[in-house]
Design goal:
Strand content: 5-15%
Number of strands: 4
Number of helices: 3
Structural class: alpha+beta
Order of helices and strands: HEEHEEH
Strand order of the largest sheet: 1-4
Largest sheet: 2 strands, antiparallel
Length: 145
């Protein structure tokens, strides 16, 4: 026959719950000034796009892109202007990539620069952003040699 090495007195479950409840102290509620509300997603503020990933505080959507200066690429700019002119004939809700000479109400920036995304969004925490930026610059420098 096996014997227990130690014998404990048996407490009922109710006695254990009462003891735990007495030990727990309720914490005071945080002031409303300390609670930050997550931003409201309003697609009308960004050309009707809807988030595919919900907002998470402290998480940053990052991507790698190639910058294209349209002022240095007049043939590309001319081609894009022709395409937009054709699209305007059939569609009215097209977001402007850049302002053309015929625009009465300019809505896009006049920077003449487009960004061509070369990666999917990468979701990084704040402490990871600088390391990614440094590594991407290092890789770009190495590949241009």
């Amino acid at each position: 026959m096996k014997r227990a090495l130690v014998s404990y007195s048996s407490d009922s479950e109710e006695e254990i719950k009462e003891t735990n409840t007495k030990r727990m102290k309720l914490l005071p509620k945080l002031s409303s000034t300390l609670v930050v509300e997550p931003p409201k997603d309003d697609p009308s503020l960004h050309q009707g796009r809807v988030r595919t990933t919900p907002f998470v505080d402290g998480q940053f959507a990052t991507h790698a892109y190639v910058s294209i200066d349209l002022e240095q690429n007049p043939r590309l700019k001319s081609f894009l202007e022709e395409v937009l002119a054709e699209v305007d004939k059939t569609e009215s809700n097209v977001f402007r990539l850049f302002n053309t000479e015929n625009d009465a109400n300019p809505v896009a920036s006049n920077s003449g620069e487009l960004h061509l995304s070369v990666s999917r969004p990468l979701y990084l925490r704040e402490h990871q952003r600088d390391n990614l930026r440094k590594r991407m610059r290092q890789l770009a420098t190495e590949s241009s040699r």
